[in-house]
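input
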Amino acid sequence: MICGTGIDIIEIDRIRRAVERHPTFLSKHFTEVENLYFMSKKNNPQSIAGYFAAKEAVSKALGTGFRFFRFTDIEIEKDSFNKPSINLYGNAKKIAQEKNIDNIFLSISHCKEYAIANAIAITERLG
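output
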């Protein structure tokens, strides 16, 4: 059963500027795993913006936004088919457990100017 949804869209240029202006932007908002992925993509702003939008979408699917946890409590990874998956840590993981969230499905896309992500939280339990 769907127990939460979230969507986010962001201007890629906004993320590009943030990375250029703030040397700690990547380390503050992304995990080591995510930053290694970005380095493999030569810090492509589209990839970074997509992951940023994904984290925002997941925070909305959890029903809290980022009030109770950090950006790095949500980690995005891609499998060998380029399908994104989510690892939760810290308070984000605790919130998901409290809400009986068993899985969060994620989709990320972008065009030249925008990145968008959609997250759907699922529970197997009724009630």
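quick obs: The longest strand covers residues 2-11.
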